[in-house]
Amino acid sequence: MAANFKNPVIRWIDHRLPVFSYLHHEANEYPTPKNLSYWWNFGSLAGFMLLVMIVSGIFLAMQYTPHVDHAFNSVERIMRDVNYGWLLRYIHMNGASMFFIVVYIHIFRGLYYGSYKAPRELLWQIGVVILLLMMATAFMGYVLPWGQMSFWGATVITNLFSAIPWVGDSIVTLLWGGFSVDNPTLNRFFSLHYLLPFVILGVVMLHVVALHRFGSNNPIGIDTKGPQDTIPFHPYYTVKDLFGLGVFLIFYAYWVFYAPVTLGDPVNFVPANPLSTPEHIVPEWYFLPFYAILRSIPDKLMGVIAMFAAIAVLFILPWLDRSPVRSGAYRPAFKLFFWMLVFDCAILTICGKHAPDWIWSPFSFSIAPDTGQAGISIISMGQLATTYYFAYFLVILPLLSIFEKTKPVPLSISRPVLGAGGAHASIAQAPQQMEKF
């Protein structure tokens, strides 16, 4: 049903192309669960960061030169000679980190509250596709400054595909555009880095369509039972999102204005030199857990498979966790193992950051080069953390689905929100008790 707009121009356009009616329904009167917490802000924050990255990237591309002889100097020119070029670059450079922070929190929120469960399986899988596209885009963007870490990071990561039997070498040659990382590689990566954000934008639209098909999940993890469980998205959640955006912008501004290069690698401020290998090649921080998984397995092919499997396992997650209770708030055992997973991912990040010959000393609680003192090697820590990561998804969640005793779940969203917390029922009892209403 078309909305009755007061503006005659909008009404005339909407009668012939109902785009305003669609936006009015999807972004204004769209019924949303009334109990969403601030953890649900991170979806809109991710959309905001995508727009920031696209806009800042377009302006940077106007001044960037994708050639191995000029790329590094063109970035320096942006920083020194282009009006507010330093600001554009710091917004874009730190924006990548902010984007991944927001998306990782968004993913862990979905993991905790069971947002991957039926009927939202496809919604979850589209989100995983967005994560993969983000990773590919960020990796190619990191190569563009053409510093030492850009060049050698590209060399190491693209060489991983050579481990694939039969077709690996052909894939690497295709990525390189030759027989080493050189000008054709830089041109390929620049072209794809510019294109993929628009692909991400298209997939995000699919993500939103899939989200609105069954509505948002909520902290209780039960479906809305009617109008009494929902409120319009505007103005209630637009105000909440704007407040969250304000807090996030303060955090973002700190990194842009006070610590703009802290999250980067200082080696990348040296021009790329194919004849000088950095002492320790590491990717950006948001790739470190997957890099640690890659390094924890001695065999190159199995390491590559494990690294990609760390993402692939998320695709099948809806069928690994078969518990009828969505929200981790009502699953005591699940909650324990979930926070162990969060800690495990932090350990993987630390392991990916440090050189393989470093050790962690449990007596001094420090990580340092191996000097013969007692401790656990970074590789051993990475192997233990990798084992738990896969065990969580492939072993623990299926077993919890069978043996876990969950807490009683509220019959509806409205009752705990309005303070009638006494009305609870188990999932098995809910259908029979709901028949009484």
UniProtKB/TrEMBL annotation:
It is found in: Membrane. A ubiquinone binds at H212. Keywords: Electron transport, Heme, Iron, Membrane, Metal-binding, Respiratory chain, Transmembrane, Transmembrane helix, Transport. One of its GO terms (molecular function) is quinol-cytochrome-c reductase activity. GO terms for biological process: respiratory electron transport chain. Coiled coil: none annotated. Heme b b566 binds at H106, H207. Its cofactor is heme; heme b. InterPro entries: Cyt_b/b6_C, Cyt_b/b6_C_sf, Cyt_b/b6_N, Cytb/b6-like_sf, Cytochrome_b, Cytochrome_b_C_euk/bac, Cytochrome_b_N_euk/bac, Di-haem_cyt_TM. Binds 2 heme groups non-covalently. Belongs to the cytochrome b family. The main subunits of complex b-c1 are: cytochrome b, cytochrome c1 and the Rieske protein. This is Cytochrome b.
